[in-house]
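Rotation project, supervised by the postdoc (A.L.). Task for the rotation student: set up a whole-complex structure prediction and record inputs and outputs verbatim in this book. Inputs entered:
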Amino acid sequence: MRFVDEFRSAEKARALAARITELCEPGRQYKLMEVCGGHTHTIYKHGLEDYLPEAITLVHGPGCPVCVIPMGRVDDAIHLASQPDTIMTSFGDMMRVPGSHGSFFDAKANGTDIRMVYSPLDSLKIARQNPGKRVVFMAIGFETTTPSTAMTVLRAKAEGLENFSVFCNHVTIIPAIKAILDSPDLRLDGFIGPGHVSTVIGCRPYEFIAAGYGKPVVVAGFEPLDILQSIYMLMRQLSEGRSEVENQYTRVVPWDGNLAALTAINQVMELRPYFEWRGLGFITHSAMRLRDGFRAFDAEALFEVPGVRVADPKACQCGEVLKGVLKPWECKVFGTACTPETPIGTCMVSPEGACAAYYNYGRMNRHRVVEVEVSRP
Amino acid sequence: MCLGIPGEVVEFLPDQADLARVDVSGVRRVINIGLLADDPPEPGEWVLIHVGFALSKIDESEAAAALQFLEGIGQAYADELAALAESRIE
Amino acid sequence: MSDRRASWVDEALREHEEHAAAGAVSDREQQVLDRIDRARRRRPRIREERITMSHGAGGKASRTLTEAVFLDAFRNPLLEPLEDAALLQVNGSRLALTTDSYVVSPLFFPGGNIGDLAVNGTVNDLSVAGATPLYLSAGFVLEEGLPVADLTAIVASMQAAAAAAGVQVVTGDTKVVERGKADGCYINTAGVGVVEHDLALGAATARPGDAVIVSGPVGDHGVTIMLARGELDIEADLSSDTAPMNGMIAGLLAAVPGVRAMRDATRGGVATILNEVAVAAGVGVMVEEDQIPVRTQVRGAAELLGIDPMYVACEGRLVAIVDGQQSDLAVAALRADPLGEQAAVIGRVTADQPGIVLLKTAFGGTRIVDLLVGDPLPRIC
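Outputs recorded:
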């Protein structure tokens, strides 16, 4: 596969790993956070940590838009889906996320019409094909996905569709990163920046991290070599005492982002004053809702949702895992009460959540370090 | 947030603005290229696909540059290891 | 705003309390991993009140259902191995008995139809148990409104498949249900075969040093069906790999005395079989990602959807565990058959981390291959 296979080469990985190791100051420990759940997934799926020296720890951040949806919002979605003559459409990622009385899968077992789609455009197609039903699209995702929902709403409007609406749960990445940076119990040395979010928002929004907090940021692609190279670039910045925003993913990420995408988002949506993030609490200006002018496509405006807040159980330590304070296996309920089949908290809920990724892929004796010869002492 | 796959634009759909057929390793899907309206891709160009939309064009020269950098690091490393090995023999 | 607690969580936590009381909860990583292993070996319990699609996917949920409901009720030594077929001693002859139901939708897809699956699937389940397949039964549940022409086509395919495999359909049954049920047609087949050798085949016999071999590219059937359903709007030139493997298997057994076990890689895919072997034999399994054959298009579709071909169903692929010294012989024997052209050794059985399947990625790192809860679901993240 072009633009994929070339970035999965093991030999090049060894070279990068050697360089990374050389850049480690003796006696110093480094904590680098990858914000994006997709990066967490790649790291575990390819066994990337095997290439890193013990001095470097990767901390898994809150960039999993499925994980951060509070249980109460899942309940709301199921409530919407359960109304008469309604078809709920959703990405596969949401299907097993449990609300307080079960997941979309469980609701489906109870007879609710919930269908999995690959794209919001597929949801639109279902709406066209079922004029007698109301079709709701469960919109989730960071800024990578938000433009697609916005474009779909614009298309629905242009076609004059009357039976299509969106239950908007889009969130934004910068407030989450800021919450991490402002957290008192965390010490991070640098950030592996989200690659695909950046195709939309560009690299400028991260400048406050480098300038204001003095932490380097490297916007990274999703193949294992992309991530390794980004770690190398971060280590180089740290060893040279720099803190800047750099773009490793230049083949896809434009520095200024995608104006058409930002325009579409802005046309259709606005920031909510605040939104609850599971595990992180309420964050201001961190999520989107449809503007008044698009009321006709806003499921929350058109229909009643219970809006009940469901608290996470006390035993849940997701907040600390999300902020990188705890490793997944350090959580007291990890792997026993909380497993991918019975996820108690957000980090286990989606396959790219830190705990799920570790449970599914990384739960093993860590002797397997790839032998890397360091040529310069 | 994240699952974006590179695909090659094969053709535009005749009477559907904004829609193009892409190819990913022989698998084809129609996607919306409306987000690239400012600089639409031509057949033969590659785009990043996410949930049925093209988010960005893949800049082939940047990709080549990235690979060259990796190639370079790989070669420099191999050279150093070879030099190291040689010096050990003596 | 009022708060509501999720009741199912309380139950999970209660179980954890009981479990934690049994041994000190520690913060050292290895002890945590051991604790998790013990938790995984607990007696399986169904938590759900209703059956969900996950229970049919071949992963953890299916396994729990089988053990907690069926095995629990029917428990007997012949059932317990839970292999693809049961091995029976009847009046001095060793027989194999198997059954399968076919509920695929759509009924017709590139590469075949539900009828082909039904015959080949049962032939294969008997063959991997080491039996020569002989006789099949075929039970039909038909939906009111199904075109007779469709049924005729399905049955014609079944006869062709049976003839190709050298078996006969000797008994059957038909039921009709109201419009809206049975998705057109469901088929159940049961099969009986005779074991004519002395080999004691079974996943539990796998031992460190054995080779893990796959007979061809994985994921063809499952991806073909996913695309054929038409919901994903993806076009690809792919077809199901449904085929009877009895000829290929006979060739393998004739040439290679050191075959320990064979499995038909159906729902749950190759990954599920590897996990079953690891657990049944109490061994580790280590496979290499770049040795696993996958067709380019299956890979493309899987990348696009974010699913892993290792978990995707095949319908004409074999996973064989073979004495490590005879792996070349086994691959050659498989390749001698047209169905086994791309047979390859994909890994080894090890003594390392029993019960766990490890994968060395093409990138060079290592990770676990665990059972999924249910079907692999397309993802966006």
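Student's summary: The radius of gyration of chain B is 20 Å.
Supervisor addendum: Helices of chain B lie at 60-89.
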